[in-house]
Each structure stands twice: as structure tokens, then as C-alpha cells.
Amino acid sequence: MKKISITCIAFFAFATISLGQLDFGAGLTYAADGGGFFGVQGKVLYNLEDIVDKPMYAIGAFSYYFVDGGSLWSIDLDPHYYVLTIGDSIELEAIAGLSIARFSVRYRSNTDVGINFGANFKIPVNDFYIYAQPKIALGGIGGFVISGGILF
Known about the structure:
CATH class: Mainly Beta
Number of strands: 8
Mean pLDDT: 87
Low-confidence stretches: 14-18
Order of helices and strands: HEEHEEEEEE
């Protein structure tokens, strides 16, 4: 009975989300802390403008970093707040959100929660966006992190 209830709740929750409000993307990321780690990133953007009457987005990102002898990944939940448009079309958005990072080496692992602060630059190109995102992570992955990629 619990499985059926959870399935019904999840179905109705996802059914109310319009695919027109979702953007998906991928990119590259670099974490400068601890000698620097390159990685790949997947993103989902949900437009909240209809709900809050302001240009605002909820972003979920998963980043996997390439580390010798171990693994490092992070999950970021970052709301983006529209600030201004630079030039004709480059949108500047402020970021403040949460991060969960996990680092594993052999038989040891560590999970840390952190806070992200930064900016997102979004450049429209035809039917997609190019993004560049510098931010500071306090806790979590820690230090300066820069990401860039494409959103569809």
C-alpha cells in the first residue's frame, strides 16, 4: 500500500510540471581547491517565474570530478535570481544554494554539506543557452568552482 501511495504522489507531482518549464544541460567544471579537479556536470533548470512572479530558477546539478585513486562528486541545489541583462542578451543571475559533496579513497570516504555563492552568466544562442558559472563553495566541495556548458 505504501508503494502505491508513494507512486501516486510522485506521479501527480511530476505531472504538474510542464516540460516547457524544464531545461536540461551538460558541461565541464573545475574545482580549484585541493590542487584542482576537472569534471563533468549535468544540470536541470526549472523556471519558477509563474510561481513567484519574478525571474527565478531552481537548479539541480550533479558534478563528477576525475580524481586519481578515488572519486569525488557533488550535488548542488542552487536557486538563480535574475539581476540584470548585460549588453543585448547576456543575463546575469545571482546564486545562493546548498551543496553535498562526497570524496572516497579506497576504504575511506567523507560527505560534507556546504553553501554556494556566486554568479551565472547565461547567453542565448538560437534554441539553447551557453552558461558560465563562477562560485565560491563554503564547505561541500570547498573553494572556488567554475562551470560552463550548454542548456537546452
